[in-house]
Design goal:
Elements: H1 2-42, E1 46-53, H2 54-70, E2 74-81, H3 85-97, E3 105-109, H4 113-118, E4 122-123, H5 131-134, H6 139-143, E5 146-147, E6 150-151, E7 154-160, E8 162-166, H7 167-173, H8 181-194, E9 199-202, H9 209-221, H10 239-253, H11 266-274, E10 278-283, H12 287-292, E11 300-303, E12 315-325, H13 331-341, H14 344-354, E13 357-358, H15 367-372, H16 376-383, E14 386-387, H17 395-410, H18 416-432
Parallel strand pairs: 1-2, 9-10, 12-14
Antiparallel strand pairs: 3-12, 4-12, 5-6, 7-12, 7-13, 8-10, 8-11
Helix pairs in contact: 2-14, 9-10, 17-18
């Protein structure tokens, strides 16, 4: 009896142990599902892709690594493209036209925004960004990212056209930096006679987008306009625009500008100035560090472009920013990338690596940046005079029209009046369609 009782007790004990183990297994499995398996399923790593120029992509790599280390569930991936912005625009356009773009973010030149937005390729950012944040950027950089009142691009880096001048030569001749077009002409002619510098003023006269960018500054200085984005009114055949063209033609005819200027882009003009062959240069800020490392280092300065008395100086606004592709399956993750690049610290790091121009106003006087880029405060004054090329969906076609007729006038194939009248007429027909 006793032995039978002991065996029954042992049996019940073993059954109890098995039940406890079973319950423990059930509880453990439940916790694993709740805290390990389900989060793994619901928080899978999302890849966010951007197409970007190869050179710039290399410069971004430290920031991409930092972003990915801070965002366990997002993998930011840069797709390297040629360093030609026109090719990048075509690649983005082709991807969207195929209907299944692989890019979640769109890294855009300021003149692409309206075209891309009008085509329905971009997601509005208005619900994601505050007015207080936008107020930290130049109005032109923000407005350049709008289409029909909606924001589609956050600024990241800016660019402005400006005038470079040989400070040493002006000081030698006792001249102040030119404020008006007349000043520019007179100083150029005088110093061409007084020094061994061949040319007074070099600028981008080749038939390409740089010609349009240069011309909007001259046009602004003469009190004219290209296309009113609100009314689509065209001003190319107005007296102010024709006078602006005549000024450029006369610069070539009088020998202030070289005859070959109608074939020059940014780099050709930079080399002319950097090699000591020109007194004045119209170009972008990227020239500053390059010129400082040349034979004219410490001998030049920068300022806003000349203008007619009573008119405004114009600095053509360029620059790049980020938008979210309408086709992206991960818009929230894409916005996390934009938020990261929108941080002051991130932008400071990017500028220290690249030497680009800030879009955020406060960074022009940031002590860390000014210690490396002493010209930033001067650049701030120029950036405050920035002007947009017409922010319209048809900008690419409108710019092509201007380039063709303006080049015709500058190369003496047409007179200024005929060229601008033809350009205005063709532009109106395009915008009326």
């Amino acid at each position: 009896m006793f032995i039978a009782w002991q065996l029954e007790k042992l049996k019940r004990k073993l059954q109890k142990i098995k039940l406890t183990r079973f319950l423990l297994l059930v509880v453990t499995s439940f916790l694993a599902v709740q805290f390990l398996i389900l989060p793994g399923l619901t928080q899978q790593v999302v890849t966010v892709k951007i197409l970007i120029q190869a050179l710039e992509a290399t410069q971004w790599e430290p920031l991409v690594e930092e972003f990915n280390s801070q965002h366990e569930n997002i993998n930011l991936e840069l797709v390297k493209a040629p360093n030609d912005s026109n090719i990048i625009e075509d690649l983005y356009s082709s991807a969207f036209l195929l209907g299944d773009s692989p890019y979640d973010l769109v890294y855009m030149d300021i003149v692409w925004v309206q075209k891309f937005a009008a085509a329905g390729w971009l997601e509005s950012l208005d619900d994601r960004v505050s007015q207080a944040t936008l107020a930290e950027y130049f109005p032109g950089d923000v407005n350049g990212g709008r289409y029909q009142g909606k924001l589609y691009r956050m600024p990241l880096r800016s660019d402005v056209g400006m005038l470079y001048y040989r400070q040493d030569l002006l000081n030698q001749g006792g001249y102040q930096p030119p404020e008006t077009f007349t000043d520019l002409v007179e100083i150029s002619q005088a110093l061409q006679q007084e020094t061994n510098v061949d040319w007074g003023y070099v600028w981008q006269g080749k038939q390409y987008e740089g010609l349009s960018a240069m011309f909007v500054e001259i046009l602004e200085g003469f009190g004219g306009y290209w296309v009113n984005p609100e009314t689509l009114e065209v001003g190319l055949d107005r007296p102010e625009a024709i006078e602006a063209v005549e000024f450029l033609r006369s610069a070539i005819a009088s020998g202030i500008s070289p005859p070959g200027v109608t074939t020059y882009a940014e780099e050709e003009t930079r080399r002319f100035f950097q090699n000591g062959n020109a007194i004045f240069l119209r170009n972008w800020p990227y020239v500053v560090p390059l010129a400082e490392d040349s034979e004219i280092g410490g001998k030049f300065a920068i300022k806003a472009m000349p203008h007619l008395p009573g008119e405004n100086s114009g600095a053509c606004l360029g620059g790049w920013g980020l938008g979210i592709a309408k086709t992206s399956p991960h818009p929230d993750a894409a916005w996390s990338v934009i938020e990261y690049f929108n941080q002051v610290d991130t932008q400071r790091k990017l500028l220290l690596i690249t030497g680009f121009v800030p879009s955020r106003k406060s960074l022009f006087t940031d002590p860390v940046l000014v210690a490396k880029y002493e010209y930033y405060p001067e650049l701030l004054e120029i950036a405050q005079k920035s002007i947009l090329r017409p922010p319209i969906a048809q900008y690419a076609q409108v710019s092509d029209i201007l380039q063709r007729y303006l080049s015709g006038a500058l190369t003496d194939r047409m007179d200024a009046s005929s060229a601008m009248e033809a350009a205005a007429s063709e532009t109106r027909r395009l915008l009326a369609r």
